[in-house]
Amino acid sequence: MTYAKMRENLYGPIRSVFSWDWLEGEEYGLAGMHQISRDMRSELSLATAELGKIFARVTGKVQHGPDGLLRELGIPEEALAAVRIPVFEDTVTTIGRFDFAQTPTGPKMLEFNSDTPTSVVEAFFVNQKACDFFGVSNPNAGMETQIERAFQDTLARYRDLGYKTDKIVFSALGWHDEDRGTARFLLEKSGLEARFAPLEDLRVKNDRLWVVANDSMEPADVLYRLHALEKLADDRDDDGYPTGKHVLDLIARKKLAIINPPSAFVAQTKALQALVWGLHEAGEFFTPGEHELIERYMLPTYLENRFSGRSAYVVKPIFGREGGAVSLYAADDSVIEQDKDRFYWDQPMVYQQLVEMEQVTSETVSGPYQGRLLWGSFLVGGQASAICARIGGRITGNLSCYLPAAFG
Fold this sequence. Notes:
By secondary structure, the protein is of the alpha+beta class. Helix content is 32%, strand content 26%. Strands 4, 5, 18, 19, 20 and 21 form a six-stranded antiparallel β-sheet that branches. It has a five-stranded antiparallel β-sheet with strand order 13-17-14-15-16. The longest helix has 26 residues, at 38-63. The radius of gyration is 21 Å and the shape is globular.
């Protein structure tokens, strides 16, 4: 059987759920399998769970900190009040994803996609289908049940805090296959009585959020949004009305519950990684065990360049995604590689020690491809959950390929 035929046999039957196995005319979902050892799988889970606790504790303190600290971390002015709203004390997000590079000294966390993570369908649905197809063992088996528990717990927490939770809306850009499909998948797995509505159909009227469809309006009490809060801060209606700013005000006044909760946005900024590393380096705030975990699984990260002339480093925007505006530099400040996209260059940057991701080779429709492997590891309801592997260049971009994973 040719690779192309095998690939179609794998992805063809599941396109009703996973429709983006091709992206922008390029192969995204690969018909191959990367083996992961049980020891490495266990370490990714340990790193995810423990870093999740560390980020939750730091984020909780930051939410109660001065506005100046929030601004320094890159929180937009429009969101300062909204991000202070506490929901959970011991977990920072309902569903988030840590990204790790596997290095000779073990996994190193590159960033935390705590607010609007993707690769959800790949990890919690496609990976099982791929493992069934190839007759191998899925390292994510059964973990989709964690999604329902996490969403139900989040809704229950909002109820306990006195929020209205009758009308629940899951939303994403209607034209974007991946975002729309991810939001619909989470709606189905959440077990909640909810509806999907494109972001384009959301309006603010009479100091409340509404879904507009077919000349009718329905209120929204709870909003799951695959739409980052820093983007929401700039959103306007067609007539110029600052809808996003008003939505953030509704969140701040507890008139709208959001999933992921506001704390997830605070944890999303890479400037928080610099804060965590700075506290660790100063020997402050953390317990001896937490210091050990930070040293083991995190990378030196700063708000200014402390690597020039000393070691290779990465420069990345604090709210960038999919490799946007990321640059890799040698110790002598010469450019190793730089993202060519136009987005995120206007954001504040963080400087992080450069580590090389492991090189792997996979078959593609164009023949064998050698790339760098990035591991995504989900944190769901405060618990380590499914993993997802992607293969691409030294900078993992939007078109880096999904590579199913199995126990080796």
